[in-house]
Amino acid sequence: EAQVTQNPRYLITVTGKKLTVTCSQNMNHEYMSWYRQDPGLGLRQIYYSMNVEVTDKGDVPEGYKVSRKEKRNFPLILESPSPNQTSLYFCASSRRTGTGGYTFGSGTRLTVV
Amino acid sequence: AQTVTQSQPEMSVQEAETVTLSCTYDTSENNYYLFWYKQPPSRQMILVIRQEAYKQQNATENRFSVNFQKAAKSFSLKISDSQLGDTAMYFCAFGGDAGKSTFGDGTTLTVKP
Fold first, then answer.
1. B112 to chain A nearest CA, in Å?
2. Of the four, A53, B53, B62, B78, which is 20 to 30 A from A16 by CA?
3. Residues pairing with A85 in the sheet
């Protein structure tokens, strides 16, 4: 089944403790992207990747890191999480930058206390 | 930078009737894609319909159709014969060739029996 797999689905952590949210797709998509969703603000793009070893900042990249060493994986790293990073996070992929639409993962609900 | 505006935070419609959700956008890009996504309470993001900006013909997917007015930068979604399962939050989204994507703040649609 074609899908984007995110883990974990739920995570509660403490301020300053480094964490990684994994994202993997099995569709051989070139494009991958991370978003955060907050009430009333829709989805905001954090980082995106047009292909392996190519990443770019979205609208809200502060406090996040990403890497794209393999085509299928695009992990999101929070080096020192803070409470304002409490949010619902989505990973998405597509064949090219937007062609055909984005396939989304199931989301990760992150709480930083 | 592009912007996407959904001016209707909430809407409701009677089952079997027709409803239109509004979306306007702004961009300086020439080649881009527009989407409508549905997010039910399960929080999964589901692609409803997509439109390539270079195509003049409005996209249609079963009960869902769009009215794409490129000059006016307008991209509304019409849902015909509304069903209870259409109850969800709907997001209008822009995807550019450069890789950035922008989502509107969403419209919560309630279909009433």
1. 23
2. A53
3. none
Is B46 strand, coil or helix?
A: strand
Two tokens at B46? 């589901």
pLDDT tens for A19-33 read 999 999 999 999 999
Q: Per-residue DSSP letters for A15-55? A: TT--EEEEEEESS--SEEEEEEE-TTS-EEEEEEEEETTEE
Host H or E run for residue B77: strand B74-79
Q: Is-contact A48 A61, C-beta < 8 A?
A: no
Q: Of all residues in chain B, what percent carry a pLDDT higher than 90? A: 84
Interface touch A101/B47, C-beta < 8 Å: yes
Q: Do A97 and B35 touch (CB under 8 A)?
A: no
Pairing type for strands B101-103 and B46-52 reads unpaired
